[in-house]
Amino acid sequence: MKKILILSLLISCSQFFMSCENWFDVNPKSQVKNDILFENENGYKTALFGIYTTMATPALYGQELTMSLLDVLAQYYTINDNYHNFYNASIYNYEASTVKSKFDAIGKTMYKTIMNCNNLLENMEGRQELFSGHNYELIRGETLGLRAYLHFDLLRMFAPSFTVGANAAAIPYVDRVTRTPFPQLTNMAVTEKILQDCEEALSLLEVSDPFGPAADNTEPEDEFLRNREERMNYYAVKALMARVYLWAGQTPKAGNIANELIAHPLLGTNRILFRLYSDKITTMSDDYFTVNSENNLQLSLSQNQRKEFYETEKYESSDKRIPSWLILNPNTIESDANTGRYFVSKYNQNGPMNQGIPLLRMTEIQYICAECQAEPAKGLDYLNTVRHEYGIPAAFDLTKENCVFEEELFKEYRKSFLAEGQLFFFLKRKDYTDIPGALNIENPRKIFCFPLPDDEKEFGNLITK
């Protein structure tokens, strides 16, 4: 087994940060002085917001891990031209430079963001006196949750699934700032570390998070304590644990957490538990989903895809997702409507259906609970709950007499997570050998595991062999 070692970079290097976001003030030598940054509570808040800002950039959840790359791999879009920036990704040609560069940028940015988490955590140790109220516990809990979240998505991308093996070689788990290399761990070992971070995060957020057991049903006066769905929070950590347990095949534990969340009176069927805010979300969406998008970047669904994915012949007039998340290319003339192209409008609208960049939602928790049921018929009840929330009447309920649970579960994932990047992970976890919409694939498991860099210079010198 090839051994991979990951070298951590000092967080003080200014290259870790995007200067345009003004995260930190840097000295003339372009180095962040931790003793200056972390001299008071506001410095820790600045560092924390910097982590969220990076997560919302195009290289991560602003584009590649939601609306573009991962959904291209899940075959949401029709891409026929070989000059298209995502053409090679759509046919799983991972050796193409356009694809390798995306994988490398994702891995590099993810690990740098994790290192930012580690730097923040290490600079908090023994400094509780700098924080007001429960902000020490809140910031530390959030950061641990973020470190777990980022590692889990790295695991889902760059490691084999648990179907291949719990003891398969996976990724390093980077949990401290050091020049000492980190060894490549197994799937199970990484998962255990993720869950350890989640457990510690929960213990801290339980006593500090206004969106958690510590809530007192009043609007916090402190702006820092508001809009908790836009940051890692108690319920988001719980949801992440359900997602992790399901990935690891531990369905009883996943189901128990999902049931606990569903039973909570404040968490509705489709509520967003964790989303990223970005004032650039419309701009990032417009890169792909408008008539003015560059031809080699434009992404769209065909009319046939829209019909198939959303079963429009049945649900056109009732499913709220159809008119809210898809818009016909405005250049399409009426006579060509049946062959027109549809753009994703999920991120370019006002009102309740505009939900930022969703990373964890109760819809998925309903689906997890459905999957963990011993009886498929009971699982269908959870799918129907989500369908009702989106406007599909009970007359169209799924029953064991009119459908197959696994087929409907796939359909509902595909409907609900358009431009959110989750369908690709569903296909990987389920070990699909025939990916709907894809051409013949010789080795399906290979396309589900992104290749690690060939050269130690990739990922910004983070990896050596």
From TrEMBL:
Transmembrane segments: none annotated. Residues 23-205 form the SusD-like N-terminal domain. Residues 1-19 form the signal peptide. SUPFAM superfamilies: TPR-like (SSF48452). Its main location: membrane. Keywords: Cell outer membrane, Membrane, Signal. It is found in: Cell outer membrane. Residues 333-432 form the RagB/SusD domain. Pfam families: SusD-like_3, SusD_RagB. Gene3D superfamilies: 1.25.40.390. InterPro entries: SusD-like_N (IPR033985), SusD_RagB_dom (IPR012944), TPR-like_helical_dom_sf (IPR011990). Belongs to the SusD family. This is RagB/SusD family nutrient uptake outer membrane protein. The lineage of its organism: Bacteria, Pseudomonadati, Bacteroidota, Bacteroidia, Bacteroidales.
